[in-house]
């Protein structure tokens, strides 16, 4: 699929996924910095959490590449990711971190709509 052939919903879904990957990578760096500063219960726990976060980000990259390549399996992990992001964002809005939760919820809803669009599912 060449760039002009890509539906707008596909571009939106991939762009939001790229932003999430970037956010996860930044979060992994923050985890490592906190672990090295002694804020974590142990450096091993911080390293494990950072590795898990980076693994999640790598999975999103693989799924996004599959989506761009027209692979039928690629939408499912991205939809699950958006549902999990929604499950994190809603309590953040209800709590004291609404500035973080609101963008998460908005991006998740927009990505979900884009992922279920007919132009992307074909």
Alpha-beta classification? mainly alpha
Helix and strand element order: HHHHH
- The percent range for helix content is over 70%
- Measure the end-to-end span: 12 Å
Report on the structure:
With 122 residues, the protein is mainly α. The chain has one domain. Helix content is 80%, strand content 0%. It is built from five helices and no strands. α3 packs antiparallel against α4. The longest helix is centred in the N-terminal third of the chain and has 29 residues. The chain is globular.
Present the secondary structure layout.
Layout: H1 8-36, H2 43-68, H3 75-94, H4 98-115, H5 118-121
Helix pairs in contact: 1-2, 1-4, 2-3, 3-4
């Amino acid at each position: 699929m060449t760039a002009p052939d890509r539906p707008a919903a596909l571009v939106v879904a991939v762009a939001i996924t790229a932003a999430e990957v970037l956010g996860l990578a930044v979060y992994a760096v923050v985890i490592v910095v906190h672990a090295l500063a002694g804020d974590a219960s142990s450096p091993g726990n911080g390293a494990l959490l950072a590795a898990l976060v980076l693994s999640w980000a790598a999975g999103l990259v693989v799924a996004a590449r599959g989506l761009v390549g027209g692979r039928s399996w690629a939408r499912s992990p991205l939809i699950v990711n958006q549902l999990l992001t929604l499950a994190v964002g809603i309590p953040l809005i209800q709590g004291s971190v609404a500035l973080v939760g609101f963008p998460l919820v908005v991006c998740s809803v927009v990505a979900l709509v884009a992922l279920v669009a007919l132009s992307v599912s074909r």
